[in-house]
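Minutes, project huddle
Topic: does the predicted pose make sense with adenosine monophosphate bound?
PN asked that the exact inputs be recorded in the minutes so nobody has to dig through chat later. Recorded below.
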Amino acid sequence: MNILVINCGSSSLKYQLIDMNNEKVLAKGLVERIGIDGSQIKHETIGKEEVKIQEPMKDHKRALELVLASVTDKDYGAVASLDEIQAVGHRVVHGGESFADSVIIDDEVMKAINDNVEVAPLHNPPNIMGIEACSELMKDVPQVAVFDTAFHQTMPEKNYIYALPYEYYQKYKIRRYGFHGTSHKYVTEKAAEMLNKPADQVNLITCHLGNGSSISAIVNGKSYDTTMGFTPLEGLAMGTRTGDLDPAIIPFIMDKENMTPDQMNTLLNKKSGVLGISGVSSDFRDLEEAAGKEHRAQLALDIFESRVRKYIGAYYATMDHVDGIIFTAGVGENSISMRASIIEGLKNIGLKVDAEKNDVRGKAQEISAEDSSCPIFVIPTNEELMIAKETLELTK
Ligand code: AMP
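Predicted holo structure (tokens), as shared on screen:
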């Protein structure tokens, strides 16, 4: 069974066609600049050369038409016709409180995704455009929505209600939702396999450290707490997002700089984090390179590292027991020095990496020392495969 996985951003569309008989990627690609000048698709069928298609794409429907044409192209495609695609899995950012699991998309589901635009005005509209385009172009193919928030719906009330007047939760659904759920779930299942335990019996601290970063406390295989909140802004310092901040700072800056809420949102989401601190880059490779020369680049890394440590420490101290600590995503999978220094600062709770085992990038491997109080793993995330698995489960 071949499943097409679609992840739509406001002007982008990422896709993978996966053969679920062997979980192999058949083709993948990225469409950029949808609706703006210079639209292009970078398409690659595995085993063939990458092709670039430059053509105006006024909307997501046109982009998807060209993606489907690429996937079925007789020279650089992966399948002979669309009949060879049995289902489509969509990444949908916000399922709000409506979805604790992935679902087959029907009218009622579309209405609920639309209702959640209120809490995810930046994220859900492009996801909706992607689903609508697929419904038009692949009429009889079942489509599944996989939500970033769904995995975290198991959090207890005490971990998702903010200390605001309760009426704001009732009126506007302001609460912690958590994000990166597909990734936290994927590495939880992988870690359970590596630990040789049933997935519903593992307690983990999963650290998704990338451009966007979040940490989750997993109890009995389910999300118990997580660092992202009402939006993906809360928690760790990220590439360009602030993470935790005294909320009083926001009206203070708005007043001083005469800023609108939109401008403030851009500042908090796009200009802050390690980019804002360092003034160098949001990319951790650039920061690691600049750290020896530029104080603020080193400071950005120190702040990132210390927040990761703080949350690992907090979750570790409040969980009954922890079976494993997992590092995943761009930084978690690849930055040997970042992993080493995060764990070095947690020796008080007995955590220890083995320098030799930690010398690894992008490969699932245990990296803890024999005498570490708890096993530590690197597990590459694979959100597309997780979306395809959930889609298969619901449509097979
Ligand atoms: P992601 O959002 O998961 O794609 O992660 C992107 C982040 O991972 C970027 O900030 C990259 O700089 C970082 N990253 C990727 N490779 C490395 C590496 N070898 N060392 C440090 N950071 C890396």
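Observations noted during the meeting:
- Residues 197-378 form a domain with the Nucleotidyltransferase; domain 5 fold (CATH 3.30.420.40).
- DSSP finds 14 helices and 14 strands in the chain.
No decisions taken; revisit at the next huddle.
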